[in-house]
Amino acid sequence: MAINTDKVLVTHAEIEAMLDRISAELNRDYKDxxxxxxxxxxGAFIFTADLVRRLEMPVIIDFMQVSSYVGEYSTGELKIKKxxxxxxxxxxxxxxxxxxxxxxxxxxxKEQLLARGPKSLKICTAFDKPSRRVxxxxxxxxxxxxxxxxxxxxxxxxxGRYRDFDDxxxxxxx
Length: 174
Ligand code: 5GP
Ligand code: MG
Fold this sequence. Notes:
Bound molecules: guanosine-5'-monophosphate, magnesium ion
Strand order of the largest sheet: 4-3-2-5-6-7
């Protein structure tokens, strides 16, 4: 089975426009308030890098690597593969994600991070696939809403590949 990534869903120019819009919203909402930006590895590494260079407030940049799975006795558990180094107690925190799909990962992550006592905790995602949601998770900042297709590029992968594309493409298996 061959993998075809010819179909462009979001162009690089559309991604740049999205970055300008989201960073303007963040600069307006947070003004000069110092912000802890937590990028979710690995998918959000490019979005995080592009976003923070457009932010005007002082930022502390950190990363976490997490995944969610449906356990034998639960509807969802969070596995923290790499925790952030920073103490977020009484800090304003922004989670930066590549894409929200079912919403399981971020719902669980949000609960765990809220238990650490941040002053505020908000979610910013580059892409959102709301048609797949299994809970009430809504991002505070959403870049581009996408249909129910498997997408790659701009940090998003298929088995580690295609993260380097500067646009978003739909994966077709032929
Ligand atoms: P969920 O919201 O279902 O808990 O999981 C979100 C994670 O699933 C994302 O961070 C991403 O790693 C992965 N994911 C969901 N949809 C896609 C997609 O269309 N393409 C890629 N490459 N990853 C996806
Ligand atoms: Mg991910």
